[in-house]
């Protein structure tokens, strides 16, 4: 099955991007080649840009508080695993405190690093990270794996409060949804929201089906449209019924 995640508001769109960039940075940092560490640096630079949003921290705090208000009443429910519940609430509190302890933009320390800023500014110019563009970067890329890895871990650690908060809220959003097995007739399916305001949805499709879901979301309904992929032409509507799983 292939999972397609769709944010239904700007907050979740940003959080998904941050989550993806942290995953890329971690994956490339775990490798040993200088090219991989260069890719990790690029992911960190993109994180600096995305996490510079002035409202990022406040939005994460609001979501953690919203989730806390959902979980708190469950303490009186005997059917709920009390140890698991208390662990989640404690994690929420720890992450909330870590976020509140950060002053200004979480990425500010990385933005203030003049050497990193020089590389970051060049990294968004196609092909401008050659050895003759930034000799000091070329020197760093030829240091030992251990030295490069330590530097990368230190730079990424600056964003730990954001990473932990994003991973938590995304996990809670994913776990708090209902799963349905559905079928899109001739590639089309409409979801009536009935007053609900979901923050994201996930569509899972069998990998052997050459169909990709596209969505358009409105206030009252979400329309799913499954299209076929042609590597030379624009996608076209699937002409077959498409079974899929929906998490909403």
Quick recap of the structure?
With 248 residues, this protein is of the alpha+beta class. It folds into two domains: 9-172, YacF-like (Orthogonal Bundle); 178-247, YacF-like (Sandwich), CATH 2.60.440.10. The protein has nine helices and eight strands.
Annotated CATH architecture of the largest domain? Orthogonal Bundle
Helix content: 40-55%
Q: What is the tally of helical segments?
A: 9
What structural category characterises the helix and strand content?
alpha+beta
The top level CATH class name of the largest domain: Mainly Alpha
The number of distinct structural domains comes to 2
The CATH topology of the largest domain corresponds to YacF-like
Note down, in words, how this protein is organized.
- The protein is of the alpha+beta class and 248 residues long.
- It has two domains: 9-172, YacF-like (Orthogonal Bundle), CATH 1.10.3900; 178-247, YacF-like (Sandwich).
- The chain is built from nine helices and eight strands.
- It has helices spanning 10-29, 34-50, 56-71, 82-101, 108-112, 114-123, 135-141, 145-157, 160-175, and strands at 2-7, 179-184, 188-192, 200-205, 211-217, 221-228, 236-237, 242-247.
- The strands form two sheets. It has a four-stranded antiparallel β-sheet.
- Strand 5 (211-217) and strand 6 (221-228) form a beta hairpin.
- The chain is globular, with a radius of gyration of 22 Å.
């Amino acid at each position: 099955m292939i999972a397609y995640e769709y944010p239904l508001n700007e907050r979740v769109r940003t959080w998904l991007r941050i989550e993806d960039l942290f995953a890329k940075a971690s994956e490339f940092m775990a490798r040993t080649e200088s090219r991989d560490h260069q890719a990790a640096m690029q992911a960190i630079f993109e994180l600096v840009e995305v996490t510079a949003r002035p409202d990022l921290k406040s939005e994460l705090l609001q979501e953690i508080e919203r989730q806390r208000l959902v979980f708190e009443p469950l303490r009186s429910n005997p059917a709920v695993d009390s140890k698991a519940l208390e662990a989640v609430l404690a994690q929420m509190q720890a992450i909330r405190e870590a976020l509140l302890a950060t002053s200004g933009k979480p990425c500010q320390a990385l933005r203030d690093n003049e050497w990193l800023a020089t590389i970051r500014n060049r990294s968004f110019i196609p092909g401008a990270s050659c050895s003759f563009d930034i000799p000091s970067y070329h020197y760093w890329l030829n240091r030992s794996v251990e030295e490069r890895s330590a530097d990368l871990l230190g730079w990424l650690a600056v964003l730990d409060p954001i990473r932990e908060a994003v991973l938590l809220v995304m996990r809670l959003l994913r776990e708090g949804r209902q799963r349905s097995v559905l079928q899109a007739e001739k590639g089309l399916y409409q979801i009536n929201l009935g007053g609900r305001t979901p923050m994201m949805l996930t569509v899972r499709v069998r990998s052997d089906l050459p169909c990709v879901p596209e969505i358009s979301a409105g206030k009252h309904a979400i329309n799913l449209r499954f299209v076929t992929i042609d590597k030379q032409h624009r996608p076209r509507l699937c002409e077959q019924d498409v079974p899929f799983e929906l998490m909403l």
